Batch of 4 targets.
Target 1
Amino acid sequence: MSIAPLIDNHGRTLSYLRIAVTDRCNLRCFYCMPEQGIQYLPKKELLTFEEIERLVSVLAGAGISKVRITGGEPFVRTDLMDLMQQIVQVPGIRTLHLTTNGVLTGPHVPRLLAMGLASVNLSMDTLNRDRFRLITRRDEFNQVQDTYRLLLESGIPLKVNAVVMDGKNIDDIPLLVELTRHHAVEVRFIEEMPFNGEGSHYVRLDWTYKKIQAHIESLFGSLERVPDPDSATATRFRVPGFKGIIGIIAAFSRTFCGACNRLRITPRGELKTCLYDDGVLNLRTLMRDGCTDEELLAQIRHAVSHRHANGVEAEQHRRNHERVAESMSTIGG
Ligand code: SAM
Ligand code: SF4
């Protein structure tokens, strides 16, 4: 297997793979799915665990060293933990990460710790049960809170993801910042993107990264800048004297594309070289048609060598030029 790294046509080395293992979910977050849900993929169209493991091995042979499991909600897929256990053992994979809504996650925390999971991103847009019900259209607030506590106690590095939604969770911003006062947690505020199965909720995004930062500073005073790891999407800060970190992610404004090191694989096996493209290669079809590992990797390298410079360009070049409107649960964030 080749060991040449995956380098795109803009000189960016790809080392990070995000795999959405399902499009199904047990919540219906306002910013991600319509209330009635989306038309889920038939099970036979989902990548099997064997296919996912094969892709991870092939990509690890080309320099992918960090993997994130996401969805949909990863834990609605039976035996997810077995898949994760396999992935941490793939030679070349240095860190495995998980993004989850926390509803079914709690009981798995000890095993996640034991396998050496590098971090969990827990989606928690609000600390209020009524607002949780309004945002997610489900009454699972207590389970998510329990998972938050268990994760904190476990010592697995923890990030909290909160999408900032006008008229929905603005009152939670200070409460979420407060989580960083005594705990080494990273709370990340994310600009809302139009990946909700319907199209944009706003004529113009009001809660941009700049406004989020200004709002936090109006409540907590000037924030200290904290250095960002390479290829980070979050710009990181700290309230002086607080233990944890605040991240602000310009997901809609797309300020971070120049250092992007990510590949994505969707539940149906589409390779995405940008969050905003609509899939550049179907890996599932290639595998089911009998492609060898070398042929797979050659096709992936070809896709990577035609990568868009940034998310604005990728969105403009979508097939039929349609704007993004698919549910984030079909991409994984
Ligand atoms: N179900 C899991 C969860 O919610 O953590 C994993 C999948 S979810 C699609 C991954 C991340 O994408 C979550 O943190 C979620 O908040 C974020 N997300 C979903 N739709 C979004 C949108 N329209 N704009 C910004 N972030 C979004
Ligand atoms: Fe489900 Fe996550 Fe989308 Fe919410 S953000 S509907 S939890 S996939």
Target 2
Amino acid sequence: MKPATAAAWQPLAASAGSLRGIHLRELFAADDRRFANFSTRWEGWLLDYSKQRVDAKALSLLCDLWQAADLPGWIARMRGGEAINHTERRAALHIALRHPAGKGPIMHGGHDVMPAVHAELEKMRRFCGEVHGRYWRGATGEPISDVVNIGIGGSDLGPRMATQALMAFRHPALRVHYVANLDGADLATTLATLQPRTTLFVIASKTFTTQETMQNAASARAWLVQALGEVAVARHFVAVSTNLGEVARFGIDPANAFAFWDWVGGRYSLWSAIGLPLALAIGVDNFEKLLAGAHAMDEHFFTALPQANLPGLLALLEVWNTNFLGADTRALLPYSQSLGLLPRYLQQLEMESNGKPVDRQGEPLDCAVAPVLWGEAGTNGQHAFYQLIHQGHRLIPCEFIACREADFDLPGHQAKLLANCFAQSEALMRGKTLGETTTELLAGGMAADEAARLAPFRSFPGNQPSTTLLLPRLDPFNLGALLALYEHKVFAESVIWDINPFDQWGVEYGKQLAGRLLPIIEGKAPAAGLDRSTAGLIAYCRQ
Ligand code: F6P
């Protein structure tokens, strides 16, 4: 059923129409209990969505979408290992990667996947123990001081983001670096700070064929071999992949290869051995706390009613803003330096998953999907793009994330950080009318004509919707839960929009064309059949 023709859709459109002329200030003025009515708590978290442009009726209609789209049925299909990624005929069982031992089987193709999942986790534990305990030695007998993860997309963004997010939990004796870009500047500048004798490379690629990763891996190998010889490869390279044949062909000892499975999508793979560099950075005990947090969020998503379901509420509010208020963008604003890479990570999770042109039947969509996600850590963003959010006359729903306790508690910082976060959501909600601005300027001693001249520049429309998510602190458990929250939000949206969030054909198309252009740029194939622009660009580079 196409979403926009579903019975639940029309009343929502009517509700949006009647709310259109009502300012958020009025919604707060009309309901003393608005904060209590439009906020929810879970495991010490607080989700405040009272500054969203919804009322009780709209919220209740949004919750009806949950049943109308059969979210419970789709959750059961995911948990049951069905091939819900139907264009690739694959299950999406990332939830198994954080399913605790002893809590029952998770079935895929007639087999329980849990023994293999826990065996791989155990292998990670042993390996991290050897590296941290300095038993794992490089070719010259020295212990490892630096780990370089080479991967891209899901084989990079998750562990990279989480390593930064959990800097406060970092193992003191090991530095972990990430290289993703095909541009040699990424690898070259990383290697410039390292010694081959004490460097370990993790080559992370689900397919082990991705051009960027294979090129960077080959260059890293050449760097190592030049310094220490071929024999050093076994002690300085490990791999994480579903393609263990290619890993062996690259020359990595199968004993040093960590496996995962085709039922783990790239952007959902942090919880698998793709998390190895993170586990090296923070230790396997902390990595397991991350898994425990994600599992706790899984259970919450599977069981909570939509009006108390954190991923569900975020999904429903996204649908509301996108499909009924007309937003085509969302700003993600973590007031946490440690979560600075979260917007980039979520760009892949949200836009690669839900940026789709057709529904599950292959028919063109009848509604907008996946707003453009962007953002930056507060307060830095305040001094960059917030001006446009305040006065640029675009509807930009904002999502603030902050922690009650600082992870790096320097005196005087945390209260100011929180004050800025809350001030922004307040300002975006309230705005400041022309009259209020004029009164304020006059009260400050400004002459009446000057106040009248400046007031239009210094007034703000407000009514900009926002959500604020507060966590008690940023630790492995809460980070795991936060990332699982977004995974399930994306899934819930995909169900409502009736799209497959687990494939990424747009990315594959770019890879295919790059493969065709490479021999032309290298002068190994004629520049035939190219459009004039592409031919002109290549001709310039070949001069
Ligand atoms: O970006 C497209 C993609 O296929 C992602 O889904 C994946 O995370 C990334 O490429 C890297 O792929 P691989 O892990 O196979 O190298």
Target 3
Amino acid sequence: MIYLDHNATTIPVPGLSSVVSPYLSSSFGNPSSSNYLAGREAKEAIEKSREQLASLVDCSPEEIIFTSGGTEAIYLSFLGLLDRLKEPTAADFTNKIAISRVEHSAVQDAAKYIASLTSGGLASTEITNLEINSDLSIGSLTLDQQKGIKIVASMLANNETGIFHDPSAFLNSLDTINSDYEFLSDPVQTIGKTNFSFSKSRASISFLSAHKFGGPKGIGALLVKKNSKWKPSFVGGGQEQGRRGGTESVPLIVGLGHAAVNAKKSLADGYEEEIKILRDKFEETLLSEIKNIEIVGQGKKRLPNTSCFLTSGVIGGEVSKAISLKDICISSGSACSSGSINPSKVLVALGYSTTKAISALRVSFGHGNTLEEIPIVVKELKNIVSEMRLKNESKLSKLMS
Ligand code: PLP
């Protein structure tokens, strides 16, 4: 198999199962059972992982709250800010969540849901969409639109395109009239692929998911800075310093710590540059072999492993399915539901037409990929695309005649 879908999930790092397995057998203590050794050992294992993760994302261990993954961390981040959305405002404006058009559905849906919890109260919440500028940075808002913003959500790098959408001009402008907001930045796709520093980020809240950097699925973390007004909502049991109740998943947390150590080492050893060489070679070969291809965000700041491209005359989902028969895994930008094809919202937000957006494919490189795989993948893509273009052209000419 040639696996080129590392933004969906990554291949587990070497040694993951052997590091995790003792915590599924002999080392089974409950970390809250501090009266005896087995419990204390489990607690120590968790705290060691917390430090390993803190070192990868450059934050203090106390800022880390383990969760069941990125989606839960995102949900808890919004829920912990619910009180902020209930604060009364002046008569001429309402509380707002300003959210970029290219956010992951986990962020979009959590924002909408949390906003709906405030309706009928003293203050209701509006969602204000942040458009994407032609230079791919986050767009500005009018003075009135900026009033009452309590939460800003803008991801670091996009999962579909790999593009970094710079929010700094937007935030600088917002700061001049209203600095009383929490900035949520989603670096889920960035961690392990480039160096990420939570302490240097403007965000007060961020999230991560272990399976995006070689760790197990079902474990992630919410990162909350000390100056944040975020409050715990998922209580019970007092775990995670009362910020996320429930007995911790020791095996998965240990696995996350192991993946964090590996990710830090591989970044220090030049992983970002190595993976970029593969991505750039792929794009160069693709453009030289197949006509009418457009690389989304080419020349802009992107994740070093991600290539999103539009291929005229085809449907991305069909290409992805066809190439899977050759044991090659790549992803398409469009989602099919009940027989219809929905174009990627992200590509539409970037200004692409529906026809272009449904042609999108995403190749995302990761550990284990090689330069030798590139000509094989491009050759298969070329065959499939030529066949599909021919079929679609003849369908079209039949319709016209
Ligand atoms: N945020 C981004 C940018 C993602 O790509 C994903 C997953 O693909 C998530 C959040 C959600 O993470 P998880 O599926 O691990 O809950």
Target 4
Amino acid sequence: MSVLRNIVILTGAGVSAESGIDTFRDGGGLWEQHRVEDVATPEAFERDPDLVLRFYDMRREAIQTKAPNAAHHALARLDREWEGDLLIVTQNIDDLHERAGASRVLHMHGEHLNAWCTACDVRSRWTGTLIDRPACPECGKAALRPDVVWFGEMPYHMDAIYDALREADLFVSIGTSGAVYPAAGFVRNARDLGAATLELNLEPSQGTGWFDEARHGPATEVVPAWVEEILRP
Ligand code: OAD
């Protein structure tokens, strides 16, 4: 590998699992408790908005009671200390990377603590509930929805993400099952463009064979160990 300067990190639900936030596809995960098509599509929102708003209100409340874990803190340290380019692309809608202190973060599936007004298109920080149809702070209309990307919608920041992948010397995937595209395809984009690739996950992901190297274990162990290694080679 050439000189390591530019790093792109993809994170998924596994990085927040040890903070007590349910993953989607593990045993007892969110998609065992709820059907995707009932709570996470634009059609579901049209059909039964109360069900969808209640689902996200409960999760928004839960997220605010959780704290970043050692994996979030290690990535925040890497963000602070790494002098080259670094981008944390997260599929997570929680704010635990930011609460740990990371700033170079893009939320490709949206942010749970934002509400998006479908009338005026403005996004507002939102920590309360939406089920009671509050007024948009910007235009006053009761047209707020969770600012999360549902199945069938376009993920956010794709141009910036592909730009970063093009420049990456190293792509690291942390705590994601590799089941949902386009994120699951980033490893192939990165390696086709010459980056080294590393998986850090509890178990082999669906795409584990695409990575040059894979280390398996809990994020709170494997992530701090990798960060230490990369900052003190
Ligand atoms: P998944 O639930 O699909 O996968 C979580 C991954 O984390 C699995 O591979 C687990 O083995 C791993 N994992 C669990 N606990 C871990 C731990 N303590 N340490 C390390 N790894 C652990 O979640 P995602 O891959 O993030 O999208 O799911 C991707 C997208 O699917 C989500 O963003 C969401 C979902 O449907 C939307 O809602 C649009």
